[in-house]
Design brief:
single chain; seven-stranded mixed beta sheet; 7 strands; binds S-adenosylmethionine; 7 helices; alpha/beta; 38% helix
């Protein structure tokens, strides 16, 4: 029997994956990314496979990257019935096992917001461009820069810490990367990028590889 970890609010296994599927569909639509069983999806920060299950239904193949061997082991077990997912243990800042220009779509949710170093977030942006085919698209969620979002986040961290959760730790708080650095990382690595705020605390980089 698993406990379903941190992400989402579903009380049971079925609800956990249903919520992951609904969020995956909604967020792909938000980014304007059209899934296809002819295409390959790369997910950065797959966790226990909550959204990966949905990607494996909507894509021909899925590469699911995570920095945690434990998460990958749980995900592999949870998706033992899916044959089109390759599980990839990542370094935490690059996609080095993945060959250049081989991926149609890259997606990352509730992952880069926890990465504590700006250089690692920017590396993921450049690496996303590197692995995308020309015309390939990506949606990457990061923390929204700016003091308003920082204040809202900080209040949330303090509130959760008061309830005994370790959310003041650097690996929970993550970092905010200036807009200019996000734009530069995407464009120098060959992608067109649009920054789309979603809510007051998060921003999506919606990218298309153009050169
Ligand atoms: C909150 S979970 C979210 C999982 C999934 N995206 C979802 O929405 O269900 C965050 C995941 O990101 C992974 N992660 C954290 N830092 C990472 C990094 N630098 N590179 C890759 N994965 C990372 C964690 O191990 C964890 O599995």
């Amino acid at each position: 029997m698993h406990r379903y970890i941190a992400t989402g609010s579903a009380p049971d296994r079925e609800g956990f994956f249903r919520q992951g599927a609904e969020e995956a569909d909604a967020l792909l639509a938000f980014c304007g990314i059209e899934a296809s069983t002819e295409k390959t999806m790369l997910e950065i920060g797959c966790g226990v496979g909550r959204m990966t299950r949905r990607f494996s239904e909507r894509y021909g193949s899925v590469l699911a990257v995570d920095v945690s061997p434990e998460m990958l082991a749980r995900a592999r077990e949870n998706l033992a019935d899916r044959s089109n997912v390759e599980w990839v243990l990542g370094s935490g800042s690059d996609l080095s096992p993945i060959t250049d220009a081989t991926i149609d779509h890259v997606f990352s949710y509730i992952t880069l917001q926890h990465v504590p170093r700006q250089d690692a977030v920017l590396s993921y942006v450049r690496e996303t461009s590197r692995v995308l085919r020309i015309g390939g698209e990506a949606g990457l969620q990061v923390r929204r820069p700016g003091w308003q979002a920082a204040v809202i986040d900080f209040a949330g961290h303090v509130g959760r810490a008061a309830r005994g959760r370790p959310t003041l730790a650097a690996e929970w708080r993550g970092t905010r990367v200036p807009v200019a650095s996000l734009l530069e990382a995407a464009t120098v690595s060959g992608s067109r990028v649009e920054l789309r705020p979603r809510g007051r605390r998060h921003l999506w980089l919606v990218m298309e590889r153009v050169t």
